[in-house]
Amino acid sequence: MAAPPLKYKPNPKAPRQALPLLDAHVRAHSADEVALGFTPEQVSVEAQRCLQCAKPTCVEACPLHIDIKRFIARLAEGEFQSAHDVISEQSPFPGVCGRVCQHELFCEDACIVGRKWDPVAIGSLERFAADHARLRMKELAASYPKPTGPKVALVGSGPASLIAAYDLVRWNYQVTIFEALHKLGGVLAYGIPNFRLPREILREEIARLQNMGVEFVVDFIAGKTATLKELMEEGYQAIFIGTGAGLPHMMGIPGENLVGVYTANEFLTRINLMEAFKFPDAPTPVRIGKRTIVVGGGNSAMDAARWANRMGSETTILYRRGRVELKARLEEIEHAEEEGIKFEFLAAPVALYGDENGYVKEIECIRMELGEPDESGRRAPVPIEASRHRIPVDTVVAAIGQAPNPTLQKVTPQLITRRGRILIDEQGETSMPRVYAGGDVVRGGSTVILAMKDGRAAAKAIHDTLSSTPEVQ
Amino acid sequence: MMNRVLAKRELAPLVTLLEVEAPRIQRRWKAGQFIIIRPLESSERIPLTIVDSDPVRQSITMVIQAIGKTTREAVSLEPQALMCDLVGPLGEPATMTTGKNVVCMAGGVGVAELLPVAKAFHEAGNRVVALCGARSDNYRILDTELQAAVDELHWATDDGTYGFHGNVVQLLQSLAGPDTFQEGHVIGPIPMMKAAAEATRGWNMKLHASLNPVMIDGTGMCGGCRVTVGNEVKFACVDGPEFDAHLVDFDELTRRNRAYREMEQEALAHKCRVGLDVR
Fold first, then answer.
1. The listed CATH number (3.60.15.10, 3.30.70.360, 1.10.357.10, 3.40.50.80) that belongs to domain B94-210
2. What is the per-residue pLDDT for A142?
3. Residue A318 lies in domain
């Protein structure tokens, strides 16, 4: 079927529209979202920058294969709701992904316009389509009948399970998502700050799944509250494990257990999940002193540093490599810089010292120089022994990565793992029949969008297996 | 899951027993494991040791000392009320043995937490002596249940109003020597657990301490509950809560548990601003 002719002429030469932001001085004291989103006028200009390529490389590059070309054409025509419908064919989470996906590594990296000019701002356009559609979420869900097919259990309510639920419920499976915490969303809820992903956006996109008939059970720790075997006995025909990478790496240096030293997980969980930024209006506190040092160079490091800064602490990010090696989204690095967070590159902590009450008061650092590339392809930092120096500090956050959550694996010896990661075959199936896994529990620390890619693949594999197995029909 | 409160009983001043409907936890828990509760939407997540369960009523029992904001919110729940969140069972079960002389020691609200462990030791075929401490006679809790569960029960009170005049560790030293017991379990305030570990160092006895550090998720995610055990960093929520008492760094645990003390006082004194303008 040939595409209908365009109602407008693409203009890739127009400047890429800048995402309006909350003023850096305002946001330094605010939990409000930093990026404000495109105006309709900007959407019109930006969407018309898209060339509407015959072979859209962006769609291929998107791990969820969202029909980017078509939703952008709808936006360019001013058909905002219809743009959201196009996205919904593949993803119910444009509000989340429009904010947290690393578009520069996927669709925008593949964008043909980007070869000559700046790539089309696909992420911001996705977000606009989502925000515009917010008011009609319930109406969208009402068009789905209640599922009646076989029961499938998804463990963990993070991105991998959420997308799997969307696919499975549309294939008529009765889907239950089991979550260990008291709030839904996994890393999207405990890891990603409000100022990057407002809680109501997450809540609404999850509510859409609830309205479609997906059942959510909180306060349920698979392996503890019930074993996988028990879930199977309760009638679940297949299980997907998307328990993520929640086990924080420790720095392994003296003084790590001093008061005021946090893992990024604890620091972010206290603030994002338990809303410690509202303390004492919220019940859970967090200790943030006058000077904070965050160790690490990924998204968690940026998130922790930006929270500490917002809560009034003079904040420095300590990273053992250089700026180009930072692993965080480019936008988050820029926002952190704008907000006045200092960066100490090529430096690593070697010890922490406390006062007589056991509160951290100094961090000893060592300078690094970059040597030969390591297995990650990045130049490995090498310490310069003579450079040891101490810096006064009140709060230290170690944001140096996570390993897969071990709880379920520990009580399920039938699951074969390597260094904590659950091993899967090409279909996403684990060493246990009809038990699938994906996302960070398989990959180690990765990204939201790759977790979604895995969740989608596992849903497909579950559907292929169950739909070809007569006794579960 | 509904988490309905089935019964509530005051055991001693500020110490309250809650029985809560929790069919899945009731089926799976073992002595020494704990739960995390969030009694109200406005509460913190706090860990509590599981004290007992009832298969017919599909319930579990917890004992709460109402000293902070969240614990006060917990004991404000009346029968038929729904607890906002209840998750578990968490942590590893208590280490068991068989055919040995076992001493079980606890102080304060820890006496309630000792009950299932003492019972389990007894059922596993050990001779169990329980040494329990209270501030005063009227602070003694679950005496009948403990009497029924163990071979010998001794009480110590700080003011001498019941049983031995002194603390549990002094009671232990008055009753036992290096070869009296082969295995022990201690749960209660940190100073008491530390003293028990010191008193038995060099005895021919293994002593397990059940620790109570600050905790958020309880699944190994936050690392807030880390403790040093024999120079190794452990997460009490998943590696514990029980560790070799002779290897635990109790001083560090004390400091870490004090980290939020002023803030907890602030939270207790604080009235949420929302709605205060209405008169």
1. 3.40.50.80
2. 67
3. 250-400
Residues B120, B96: contact at Cβ < 8 Å? yes
- Would you mind telling me the total number of residues written for chain A in this entry? 473
Percent helix, strand, coil in chain B (nearest 5)?
30, 30, 40
Same domain, A149 and A109: no
Instruction: Please list every residue in chain A whose beta carbon sits closer than 8 Å to the beta carbon of residue B256.
Output: 257, 259, 358
Contact A285 B260 (CB under 8 A): yes
Sort out which chain A residues have CB atoms less than 8 A from B89's CB and list them.
Answer: 224-225
CATH architecture for segment(s) B5-90: Beta Barrel (2.40)
- pLDDT (tens place) for every residue of chain A, 473 residues total: 556 778 888 999 999 999 999 998 888 888 899 999 999 999 999 999 999 999 999 999 999 999 999 999 999 999 999 999 999 999 999 999 999 999 999 999 999 999 999 999 999 999 999 999 987 766 666 667 889 999 999 999 999 999 999 999 999 999 999 999 999 999 999 999 999 999 999 999 999 999 999 999 999 999 999 999 999 999 999 999 999 998 999 999 999 999 999 999 999 999 999 988 988 888 888 999 999 999 999 999 999 999 999 999 999 999 999 999 898 988 899 999 999 999 999 999 999 999 998 999 999 999 999 888 888 787 888 999 889 999 999 999 999 999 998 889 988 999 999 988 999 999 899 999 999 999 999 998 889 999 999 999 999 999 999 998 766 55
Q: Tokens 């990010």, residue?
A: A317
Tell me if B88 and A221 make a contact (CB, 8 A cut-off).
yes
DSSP state of A48: T
In a domain, A111, yes or no: yes
Give chain B positions within 8 Å (CB) of A410: 238
Q: B221–A280: do the CB atoms touch at under 8 Å?
A: no
Q: For an interface test with B, which of A225, A272, A361 has the most B Cβ atoms less than 10 Å from its Cβ? A: A225
Handedness of CA B5, B8, B11, B16 (dihedral sign): positive
Q: Chain B residues with CB inside 8 Å of A283's CB?
A: 42-44, 69-70, 267
Residues in CB range of A454: below 8 A, 6 or more apart: A160, A242, A428, A438, A439, A442, A443
Instruction: Determine contact, residues A441/A242, Cβ cutoff 8 Å.
Output: yes
* Domain annotation covers residue A18: no
Cβ atoms of residues A181 and B179 within 8 Å: no
In this structure, the answer to whether residues A128 and A40 fall within a common structural domain is yes
Provide the pairing of β-strand A236-241 with A435-437.
parallel
For residues A458 and A168, give the distance between their C-alpha atoms in angstroms, rounded to a whole number: 10
Predicted ipTM of the assembly: 0.91
Residues A271 and A392 reside in one and the same domain: yes
pLDDT cut 70: percent of chain A above it = 97
From A222, which residue of chain B is nearest by alpha-carbon distance? B88
Given A108, A139, A170, the domain boundary residue is A139
Choose the closest CB to B89 out of A224, A266, A405: A224
Per-residue tokens: A348: 């690593």
- The token pair that represents A309 in the structure block: 């800064």
Contact A283 B44 (CB under 8 A): yes
The span from the first CA to the last CA of chain A, in angstroms, equals 35
Cα nearest neighbour of A275 on chain B? B44
Q: Are residues A250 and B274, on separate chains, in Cβ contact within 8 Å?
A: no
- The minimum CA-CA distance between A69 and chain B, rounded to whole Å, is 40
Contacts of A269 in chain B (CB under 8 A): 216-217, 221-222
Of B1, B89, B216, the CB nearest to A274: B216
pLDDT digits (tens, 9 = 90+) for A78-101: 999 999 999 999 999 999 999 999
